[in-house]
Amino acid sequence: MQFWMNLVLVLQLLSALAMIGLVLVQHGKGADMGASFGSGASGSLFGATGSSNFLSRSTAVCATVFFVSTLAMAYLANHRSGAGSKDTILDKATPVAIAASGAAAIPGAPVAPVAAAASDLAPK
């Protein structure tokens, strides 16, 4: 199970980094005005329509992979197999001892042993 969790985590990180790079490479809406003044080099590299279709589709694919890997990680984290998989954090927690300041105990609640006082540990 840990192998699959690590594999999905690596897939999620790679898709996130690819998506960040693809978003940074894309040009905004105001970049078309710059193309009219001679900086339209993307047309020669990606064809006549430019890089908008290729980059936007690649970003959508990376976003889909990121979303699916996030759901897979959530599923794997909540459905672990093993002997202690039914226990929650609250089941494993040790109960806190009630202070000796006169606070009333909750009926039926288990009480942990209270630590020894400093006077009990001092040499006699």
From TrEMBL:
Localization in the cell: Cell membrane
Matching Pfam families: SecG
Keyword Transmembrane: yes
Transmembrane segments: 54-76
Membrane topology qualifier: Multi-pass membrane protein
Organism domain of life: Bacteria
Keywords: Cell membrane, Membrane, Protein transport, Translocation, Transmembrane, Transmembrane helix, Transport
Family, as annotated: Belongs to the SecG family.
Protein purpose: Involved in protein export. Participates in an early event of protein translocation.
NCBIfam families: secG
Protein name per its UniProtKB record: Protein-export membrane protein SecG
Gene that this polypeptide is encoded by: secG
